[in-house]
Each structure stands twice: as C-alpha cells, then as structure tokens.
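Journal club prep — side note

Before the paper discussion, L.F. wants everyone to see what a predicted structure for a comparable chain looks like in token form. Sequence:
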Amino acid sequence: MRNSLKIAVLILCTICLPFTGNAQQTTGKEDRAFWVENLTRIADPVLVNLSNNTLKKNMPYESLGDRQRFSHLEAVGRLICGIAPWLELGSDNTPEGKLREKYINLAVKGLKNAVNPEAPDYLVFGEPSQPLVDAAFLAQGLLRAPKQLWGNLDPQAKEW
C-alpha cells in the first residue's frame, strides 16, 4: 500500500513538474489589458444592441425553462453591475479612458431604451421572482457608477 502511494505520487509529480516552471510573469499593464479586452468582448454585444434597441431581436437564448422573458434583463443587469466600477472612473485621454467613454455612452443610451415602455428593448421589471433579482443587479450597478450612469441619464429615463 505504501509503495503504491509512493509510486502514484511520483507519477503525479513527474506529470505535473513540466508545467510548474513555465508560468510566465505578467505585468500589471498586461493583466489590465487582458481584463479590458475580455470586458469589451462580453459587453459589446449586449450594450451595442441595447443602445440600438436590437437586444431582444439579436440576443440568442439558450436555457431550460421559461426564463426567456427575463434573460435580457439578466444580461443587462449583471453586465452593468460588473463593469460599473470601471465605468465610474470616467473618460480621459488614454486609450482605456476613451474606451470607457464609449461604454458609458452605450450604457446610458441602452438604459434609456431598457426603461422606456415604448422601446423594443423595454425590459421586464414588474413581474415577481427572477426580474427582482436581475433588477437588483442593475440597481447595484447604478449605485456603483452614480456619476457616469445615473448622473448621465436624462430626467425622463430616471422617471420611467
């Protein structure tokens, strides 16, 4: 038994050893660029479509059960919640600052569509259960970016 355990550990170490020394060290700039690239890859389809009132038309839906009516609010709420601290940094003259400006504008325009009862991308807020959870994510995003998101919404969008 002891020999079997020793052999198993030796085999495992032999297999894993080549992978331990090859990890490349990255700089903070490289890490940030990686995360911003992934942020844009995730945010682009949601915010571009929402700002153009085409999210419901173009967003694919894959799920078990009857959650399709809420899937758009889920995508928007969780996305806004996640990127809000980055958006709240605001725009500046750096490439990343200009990218933030783009996403701030897309988010504000999209949120106006999301709360406009006449818009094709009006999101379901008033039904029990799941919309409450996803609306809470959206609300948390607005709290995380009070200047850039809530502060840039026009009075009519705030009223809706």
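L.F.'s comment for the group: The chain has a mean pLDDT of 88. Keep this in mind when we get to the figures.
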